[in-house]
Each structure stands twice: as C-alpha cells, then as structure tokens.
Amino acid sequence: MKLFTQLVTTLLVVLLCSQQAIANEPLENQRLLSIAIALESDHPAAGGTLELALTMTPQQGWHGYWLNPGDAGFPTKFSWQLPDGVTVGEMQYPAPSQLLTADIMNYIYPGEFTLLTRVKIDNSVAERSSLPIKLDVSYLVCSPSVCLPEQQRVETTLIVGDGRVSEDRAHKFAQWRQKLARPLDAKGRFSVENGEFTLALPLPGSIKIDNAHIYPVINHTIANNAKQTLSHDGDVLRMQTQAGDELGERFQGVLVLDNGIALSFEADKSERATLLSEAKNNRSDSSIKNTWLLGSTAFFGAILGGLLLNIMPCVFPILSLKILSLTHQESEKDARSGAVAYTFGAVLVCVLLGGVILGLRALGHQIGWAFQLQSPAVIAALIVLMSAIGFNLAGLFEIGTMTSGSRLQDKKGPIGDFWTGVLAAFIATPCTGPFMATALGAALVLPAGISFTIFAGLGFGMALPLLLVSFIPALRAHLPKPGAWMTTARRVLSLPMFVTVIGLIWVLMRQSNNDYVLSVLAAAMLSAFGLWMTGLWQQSQRRGEWWPAISLTLLPLLAVISWIPPTHVPSQLEQKEASEAVAFNQDQLSALREKQDVFLYFTADWCLTCKVNEKTSIDQTDVKEAFKQSNVVTMVGDWTSGDSKITEFLSQHGRSGVPLYLWYKQGTGTPLTLPQVLTPSVLINQAGG
Fold this sequence. Notes:
By secondary structure, the chain is an alpha+beta fold. Helix content is about 45%, strand content about 20%. It contains 21 helices and 23 strands. It is elongated and about 95 Å long.
C-alpha cells in the first residue's frame, strides 16, 4: 500500500509539472539544467581507459537528483551511442543532499554536480582513429514549486593517441573524483525485526559520525523519511531506522559524514542475535588477549627503537658524555641515582609527547609522531639550543649547567641528569627508525593505558645504555680512566652537534623563507656570544654573571619564535626535481593504481632515515631507469610541515610517523609494505616483479 501511494505521488508530481510547463511559456524555450561533457584526455591510448565527466548545472533555485531520487521524482537515464571498440562503465555520483518536503524525502543536488564514468578503448583501435561519442540524457529538474522533465544530447569525439593527460585537467578530474563515494573494504551486516532495520558496519571509532547520514542506493530498501539513529560500538558503526518494502538479502548504501566524505558499502542480511554477538565479541576475552599481545610486542619494539635513537648525531654526544661522566662518580649510589634521573627525564618527555598526540587526536586533529618538528618556531629554538651545546663542547665557554661533571652539576646531582634526559629525548624522538614505526603506530590505536606504556618504553630504550653501565659495575670497569683525553673527546663530540644544527637549518629553509632563517642564525650567534661572556664572568667571579647569557639568548629567541614566517616557495630547480614524482593525493592514487604499479612513500626533511633512503636508493639512476621501463609511477607525501590527510593515511596503515614505503601492484587495492631501510635492489626487484 505504501509503495502504491509513493507511485501515485510521483505520477501526480510529473503530471502537474507537465501541465505547469505548458502553462508557463518562458520555461519551454530554455534549459533549466545545462550539461557539459569533458574528457580526461583528448587523445586516449588504445588498450587504456580514461574518465569522462558530465557536469550538470541547474539554474538558480532548481535542483537535480541523485542515483536514488528518493520518495518522488525519477533517476537520470543515459542512452549511449558508441563506436566499435569503445565501452563505458556505470555512472558514479557524488554525495547527495536531503530535501524533506511534506514528509517526502528526496535526494538532490542543489547546485552544480559532476558525474564520472570510465571509457575503455580496445587494443584493436588504430592510432589517430576518430571516435565520436553521443549521449542522450533524460532527467528531472525541480524547484520548490514546479518540476520539469528534460532531455538533451551531448557529444564529443576522441582521437586515439598517446593517452597524455595535462596537469590542469588531471587536477580538475582529481577534484571531481574526491567528491565520489570511496568504497569500504569490509562488508557490513544488517537485520530486520518488527519492521526495524539494524545495520552493523565496520568503521573505526575515531571517525566522527555527528550529523552523518546513510543513503540507500536502491530505493525503498529503508524508509527514506524515517529518522536514523547512529552510534559507535567500538570500531563498529550501528544504525537503526525503519525498514523499507523492497529490502532483500543485501543492502547497498552510501555513508556521508559531516565533513562531506562519502563511503559506499554493502551489507548482507543476518540474524539480529548474530549482530549482537559480534558487538560483544569486540569486548571478548579473546580480543583483550590480542590487544595485550599487540601492546607487549609494540612495547618491546619501542624499547629497541629508543635504543637505536642513541646513534643519532644529536643524541650520541649527550649519551657518550653522560656515560663518561660515570668515571667521576666515586659511589655506586651517585652513579645509579644519576642514571635513574636521566631515565626519568627521557621517559617523561616521551609520555608527555604521546599524551599531547593522543589528546589532540581525540579532539579531531590529525597529527602524528614528531609533530613538534613541523613548527618553524620549534626548529628555531632547537637551532639556538644545539648551537649553544656545540660551542660549549668545542670549548668556547665553560658553564656549569652545560658541562658533564662540572661544579654546578655535581652540586645539583640528579637534577642535571634529569634535564639531560629531557633534552636528549626531545631532540631525538622526531625520527622514526626500525622497530619504532610499527610500535608508535600501534600506540595510537590501542587503549590509552597501553599506549602510554609504549611511549614510556621508547624513553626507557633511550636510557638503557646508561642504566646498564650504571647498575653493572663490570661494564663500568671497562670505561677508560679519567684524563686529559676527555677534553679532546668533548671537542670531537661537538662535531655531531654542529652537524645537527646544519640539518635543522636545512629543514628550516624548507619550511620558511631566507629572512627568517637569517634571523634564527643571528639569534644563535647572539646566544653564543652571551654564553661566552657569562663563562668569562663566572671565571672572574663577576656579579650578575648570568645576565649576558639570559638577555642575549631569551630576547632574540622570543623574537624569532613569535614571528610566523611565510610559507617557503620552492625554487624552479626544486619544482623541476619534484616534478619527477607525483604529489600524494588519495583520489589520484586510486586512479593510477588501476593503470600501473605505484610506489608511494612518505618522507620529511627532518627525518634522517628518509633522506638516507632517498639518496642511496630512491634517487639512484638504475632505480629510476627500472621504474621507467616497467611504467612505475612514484608518488611522494611530504610531511615536513604537517598534513592532516597524510597523517590520517599513515594512521590507516598503522603508522604514526615517517618513513613509510608502499608498493601498489596494478589493479590491486592492498599495498605491499616495504622495509624501512631500503636498498636499490629492493625497488628494482619490485619493479621487475
């Protein structure tokens, strides 16, 4: 009965619209909806595919309809006239909007919208062949008071060629593609009981569902005008609404989120008890055991990752001096208390950084590990700090708080060791190395208590060498005896610090302009001058000995970190180098991997592992030649200054930082994750496989 009522309503709407059109003379002689046809390439290659776009633009106050028009209206119909050797796929629609009028729910487009389809050219078509394409489109266009059916023909011609796509057209199609629904990999389940439709759909709990709506692809499978109740049960989205009259064994829908992202999915019919048991299984003992197993593995991975961070140029001198300072410790108690204080400082920084990341992600911000180095102000502060430490180790000045084994540090005892651990952890954690990437990626999706344990494991791994030397006297016995050689060792260890400063300056040059970099260098030099004066005044026992260091460090530093530098504009040389790879774009990635293999990697200028892999493997001539011969496209995601889309993509692949190397075989959706330490042979073998 309900279906009959809806059919009668639709017929009445069309009849009234037709009568209104006859009575309304001005509407007869104009199109209320214009259609423009566009091709991804005017010269597609034989044997390949390209996209065809139909941009439909209703006049002001009028609207078109989605694939499923809703309770009234009818869907758009397409009639193709194609030459031999040319086939087209189904039309793909962007996410619609809702229009509720007198309890009638319609799914519409209130403004311009673009439909996409794929056109395939057969291998048998000769090059330079002319392929005319004609399309008759029948549709309904409505305003708040009247509806009119219209029909028009659009035509275009393809000339078979090399398949080249211009940059402007690729960008335009990528924008249209971004508005289409993205398919979910996993299927859902639904059940019907007493007329109530219940859907269970796998969807991460971190995805916000406020104001989200599910649109049925097939009409009358659910009641279009009924209220939808959506909630998260762990990583399962649950939706309840009124079932429709034509619901079968499978439900197809499109979930549209508040931010405009659309996700298409399918769901199979199941018993209600099964759905409820699946939800309970998310909290079952087996799941809890698996969570703790994953957490334990990630914890030990974080310890190993933290241990490897000690070989970083900025951390190695600090750790070396702390271990050598143990030769001055006469008591076991002092050695152990200093090591514990150093460990506490390193662990505290890692836990605090992890807490900030988890907190901001809970608020909806897409950030990952090493977010602090995405800020030019933090980079500027680190340049000043690392320069000061380097000049101190080189012997330009002697200040107690910056010298291992000094009078001031000896008086404060563990306090100096604590702050040394804080410093070492803060400047080392931005890089993600072996073992560390997977561990930190797991930490961002596991329960908070386990996540904080993993972050603490990272700091513990950094401090582990010092703890071993401090608590095992036999190891300490193998340390060289104190002597004049330690002064030379300090001078030598200043070199990695200056290398770190050079690296930070290079990162800052990529994030800001030359004026800002120059101001940061001036601040670093003023700080070194002030610290040098303070060191001299300490030796002469002059009063106010700390004023030069404080004034010449803090004032210039505050000035540069409060200045927001303009975004760095790449030079022509940088643009030329970057043109060899495609910038990361998820929609473009989906299109490219249908045609060819894609090597996708994520990098950042402050990531040492990333830069080494690029220099020794990715940018090698033989690797590029192998990619060219196998028609492999390289796509790169630059995370230097932060990018929420890249952060979200990294999270989807269980990572919280860079590097990440993925290889998509042609026509596959699941990539192969390559090792974090690359070699040319790894990439060449993938290209040849």
